Amino acid sequence: MPEYLSAAELKALLDWQTPAISNAIELFEIRPRNQGFMLPEIQCRFPDLKPMIGYAATGIISADSPEGHKISPPVWWEEIQKYPSPRVVVLHDIDNPVVGSYWGEVNANIHKALGCVGTVTDGSVRDLDEVQVSGFHFFSSCVSVSHAYVHMIDFGTAVKVGGLMVKPGDLIMGDKHGVISIPLDIARDVPKAAQMMEDWERNIINFCKSDRFSVEGLKERYLSPRPSWPPK
After folding, report:
1. Are 65 and 177 in the same domain?
2. Is there a single domain that holds both residue 173 and residue 90?
3. Which listed residue, 20, 38, 50, 231, has the most CB atoms within 10 A of its CB?
4. Pairing, β 116-121 against β 142-143
5. In three state form, how does the secondary structure of 40-62 look?
């Protein structure tokens, strides 16, 4: 398994927004362009916060009934510590429809203290005002009033959230545009690839904004060779 990134390498990724990260990953041609990110059903609840990045700690939850297998919170807290920080908690909610929220002010602060920077869930969240002030990220399918009978029923396994299969330890990034998975084996090169794509796009954008604009000039720039990896 590739080594986890240093703090400086993670920061280099956070200098970009998720669309630029997505464009950069395409250059490596290691996955189809319609994979590797979550569908729009997973909404960023705090779009004014800076982007989040971290390694996934995964779990499965339910809130519909007090019956069934339950994992005690302390056991889950120990599981979280297996992954390097920063951490992102990715939870799959098996209830359909979603009934209650695992995430509110209490769990956000507990998990922040455990080195987590946010959560991504196809379940719900609540206590939005209090959590936003804390700086903890919420990405969810919905918002709800109650926690109902919410409890964890499994953890440490691959989960599918928003159409994306997430394995424990995956590198997850999210911002106001959505959530994307960054393959660890290329993650260190993604910022450079993002800059290559930015330079190519900026040439077109600046020309469109200039007094020199012409359709012929646009064709020339738009049809020019796009960046490829590795750089030539």
Report:
1. yes
2. yes
3. 38
4. unpaired
5. CCCEECCCCCCCEEEEEEEEEEE
Beta bridge partners of 155: 59
Burial status of residue 197 (CB atoms within 10 A of its CB: 0-12, 13-18, 19 or more): buried
Digit-coded pLDDT (tens) for 111-122: 999 999 999 999
Q: What is the pTM of this model?
A: 0.95
Query: Residue written as tokens 């995964």?
Result: 58
140 backbone φψ class: left, alpha, beta (φ>0; ψ -120 to 50)? beta
**Residue ranges making up the domain that contains 133:** 31-182
Same-domain check for residues 172 and 217: no
3-state secondary structure of 208: helix
Task: State how many domains the chain has.
Answer: 2
Tokens at 86, concatenated: 């920063």
Query: Has residue 160 been placed in a domain?
Result: yes
> Do 125 and 208 belong together in one domain?
no
The pLDDT tens digits for 73-101 are: 999 999 999 999 999 999 999 999 999 99
Residue with tokens 């297998």: 69
